[in-house]
Amino acid sequence: MSRLPRILLVGNYEPDRQHSMLRYADWLAAALQSRGYDVDVVAPPVRLRRRAAGATARKWLGLVDKFILFTSALRKIAPHYDLIHICDHTNAPYALALGGRRVSLTCHDLIPIKVLTGEIAGQSLPLTGRLLQRLVRFALKRIKHVIHVSEATRGDFHRLIGQPAGSEAVIANPVIGFGTMTKDQAADVLKQAGLPTDRAFLFHIGSNLWYKNRSGVVRLFGLLRRNREWAEAVPDALMICAGPPLPETVIAEAQDWRENLVMINEPSPELIEALYVRAQAMLFPSLDEGFGWPIIEAQACGCPVITSDREPMRSVAGPASLLIDPTQPETAAQTIAGRWSWLMAQSDAARAHARLFSEDAIAKQYSGYVAGLGAMRAEDRAA
Questions:
Q1: Does some domain include residue 86?
Q2: Average pLDDT over residues 284-309
Q3: CATH at 68
Q4: 0.70 cut: is pTM over it?
Q5: Cα–Cα distance between 220 and 273 in angstroms, integer?
Q6: Handedness of CA 159, 160, 162, 164 (dihedral sign)
Q7: pLDDT (tens digit, 9 = 90+) per residue, 245-258?
Q8: Has residue 1 been placed in a domain?
């Protein structure tokens, strides 16, 4: 009986604060270990960046930490592993230093490369961003084995990078750690955070990146407040936005109802789950995504989802969601108001849909893919 391949997972640089990617690498390691694989996780340590005095120095020394010092260390430890999996496609340049070793990668989205190539009207990258995305694109073209988190991401990859020369698969992101909190437990968490538990609210979570459409979130909620049918169904509702502070230009959209806009900076996973559990619905009108992780997190908590009638959001959200055009807020508000009763009845269906993305279901798919790569490596050695 042949042994299972020894696997090295390459994670993200912690100061970059890509919390979802850090969590994903930890989850993947645990999932593969539970299926008998010998797995280690390695990530760039913070070295030169900690000595930097200003933001510019931190940025550049962070790049040295990641792509010079860590690359050198990765090259030294790589021979001890049968397979090396890069957990985030933005770290694809590491593969350039690994020679002919078997390297695979998870591609989460290619939105910056779409901006780089001019596909997104009105969006651009700074000089550093352009240089980095060119390097990432160059490296992606040379990685033979790729996992895409959605069919939409696979389509983008084929169009912008090309079809991988080795193997590829579409394996969705899992729901990690959400879906067990009760409404009473969630109420206690909200109380501890100083949030009201007797007010209906819509919830949004996301960054200030353009495609998260946070201005659209605030504008759409304002239109809902002015819709008599919806306002009667959900009187004096709150709009709770979690993530970095909203820009002043976005807050200005709520000038007539500023007291109903609640902003939560850097919420804990526990608070996020409590918000999913107690929200009337999650509002997620993104303009683009590679997957849309909050959609299935919310659904796992029984929270109905309102999201964009675009891929991949449409496929990820499934039939229990309400789909809208994120560029037509007036029409979207009318749709939400008109189908509000239907949406409020979708909690159980949302939970059922989210089970398709359970940790166990997704771990089985990863295990199967890794086993296939291990078999390829054994064949290579035999040849």
A1: yes
A2: 97
A3: 3.40.50.2000
A4: yes
A5: 23
A6: negative
A7: 999 999 998 989 99
A8: no
